[in-house]
Write a structure and sequence with these properties.
About 75% of the residues lie in helices and about 0% in strands. It is mainly alpha-helical and about 500 residues long. α6 packs antiparallel against α7, α11 runs parallel beside α14 and α17 packs antiparallel against α18. The chain is globular, with a radius of gyration of 30 Å.
Length: about 500
């Protein structure tokens, strides 16, 4: 047995020598594994960008579905797939009168009976969810309101489609964030990404969509928030361009400044736009108060608003819809000034009637219409008196769009970028910047109320009471980290260490 004992002793000695080598190799292997996990593991901001891109794609799909619903209802009501103004121009006078009223009635009925469907759900919109909410948006309530908006818009209501599109995109983003179990701050940021995707989908303008949310809602253009907004807006725009025939929204001829003397009239246009914007917003709120004091049922109120639009459309069909086609006509100089004066007055009344009656939708695009009409009429007037001061009135129409939008929304940077993206006319940037900033400060000096401030104030007043925090600081401290047991596997140790 002696040789066997000696051989066993040698084996034990060999194992004793091998253990440090195995330990070192194992430790080196674990170090490499930890390094790889740490480098490949996405950071919180990288994860945020991933969720933002997903929100952008889903928001674009929701916007496309909403557009399809509008086109379907419009074809059912008018029997044609042409644009809003062209289709109403081909209708009989009684059809022009009846279709907006019918659409308003249907929208009111959807809202009325839809309350039973979403009974118990809040009416939180995307602005409230981003600013003072938890980021959670009600799905059923949004579907009901968006369906009602389809009837209002498709029947010729003087209202924009961007509002429901932004709300739908935000709801989809909220659903995505809840599925991913994001925290409340992350969920609010993701809802903001959905809103940016909605604006980008509506106007084919990703930069303006980002700045719309950053400047108007968040009130900051810090990269921590602007980065995800830009990713969501770009993802939405790429999706829209892939699945539809999206193009530059306003195809206009190139404009150039022929003389430095034109700067003076552009400054005057900024002052005029800054003065008109508060009057325009006050008129909308005033008419809204008139409709509210009638105490009529909601369907009857919306039908009355549609009836007013229809009555105007009997003589001026250009008042129907958000005014996109008419703006294109103005920017190409194909509308004489006498007709434009009549269209401007009637469009103002139609927009006030649609908005005041409670028709779901936005007034963003109608504001662009008002700015284009105002700018062209001003430029044409200057050209008649002083040709060198306004050689091309169409340029004043384009600048007027941005100036009135900046004054109404109190977001001049967004207005400048949006007008550039929608027209791709770089030569007009300098007067557009000057005019928009002057209009913004003029409007702020007259009244510190914007297109969205009233809605935000109402939502803040309806918000629940502030949550009471614990009384001592210790209650706010994070709980102790999970302990590492002797039997814990290395994978769990690495995960806890990285966390």
């Amino acid at each position: 047995n002696k040789p066997c004992q000696t051989r066993a002793a040698w084996q034990v000695d060999d194992m004793k020598e091998m253990v440090p080598q195995i330990y070192e190799r194992l430790l080196r292997l674990l170090r490499w594994r930890l390094w790889i996990i740490e480098k490949l593991r996405p950071s919180p901001w990288q994860e945020t960008l991933f969720w933002a891109a997903g929100a952008g794609v889903l928001g674009a799909l929701a916007s496309l579905a909403f557009r399809g619903g509008i086109d379907l209802i419009h074809y059912f009501l008018t029997g044609t797939a042409e644009g809003m103004v062209d289709s109403f121009r081909d209708l009989e006078w009684w059809q022009r009168l009846a279709i907006p009223a019918t659409g308003g009635l249907m929208a009111g009925l959807v809202l009325l009976f839809g309350k039973r469907l979403h009974q118990g759900q809040s009416s939180t919109d995307y602005m409230e969810a981003i600013l003072i909410g938890s980021g959670k948006l009600p799905f059923r309530a949004t579907v009901v309101k968006s369906t009602a908006a389809m009837f209002s818009i498709a029947s010729g209501g003087s209202i924009g489609r961007e509002g429901p599109m932004v709300q739908l995109s935000s709801v989809v983003a909220s659903w995505l964030g809840r599925r991913g179990r994001l925290s409340a701050p992350q969920l609010r940021l993701l809802v903001a990404c959905g809103a940016a995707a909605g604006i980008a989908s509506a106007y084919n303008a990703p930069i303006a969509g980002s700045f719309f949310v950053a400047e108007i809602i968040l009130g900051t253009i810090a990269m921590e928030s602007l980065g995800p907004l830009a990713v969501a807006a770009v993802a939405a725009t790429l999706t829209i361009r892939t699945l539809s025939d999206a193009h530059t929204l306003y195809a206009v001829p190139s404009f150039t400044m022929h003389s430095l003397w034109e700067i003076g009239p552009f400054i005057m246009l900024g002052l005029i736009a800054g003065t008109v914007a508060p009057i325009f917003l006050r008129s909308l709120r005033t008419v809204e108060g008139w409709f509210a004091r009638t105490q009529l049922p909601l369907p009857v109120r919306l039908m009355l608003g549609g009836l007013i639009v229809g009555a105007l459309a009997v003589w001026v069909p250009e008042v129907c819809g958000n005014g996109y086609s008419v703006v294109v006509t103005i920017l190409n100089g194909q509308l004489i000034w006498t007709t434009l004066v009549l269209v401007l007055v009637c469009k103002w009344i139609a927009t006030a009637a649609s908005f005041g009656s409670g028709a779901p939708g936005g007034v963003f695009t109608p504001t662009l219409f008002m700015g284009a009409s105002l700018g062209y009429l001003f430029g044409f007037s200057v050209n008649m008196v002083w040709p060198a001061g306004a050689s091309d009135p169409r340029a004043f129409a384009l600048v007027g769009m941005g100036a009135l939008l900046a004054a109404a929304s109190h977001a001049p940077v967004m207005a400048i970028i949006m007008l550039f993206e929608m027209t791709l006319s770089y030569d007009i940037i300098m007067p557009l910047m000057l005019c928009s900033v002057i209009a913004y400060y003029t409007a702020r000096g007259i009244e510190n109320q914007s297109l969205y401030s009233e809605a935000l104030k109402k939502k803040a007043a309806e918000a629940p009471e502030v949550v009471q925090l614990p009384g001592i600081v210790a209650d706010l401290v994070k709980s102790q980290a999970a302990p590492v047991l002797l039997t814990t596997r290395f994978e769990e140790i690495a995960r806890l260490f990285l966390h």
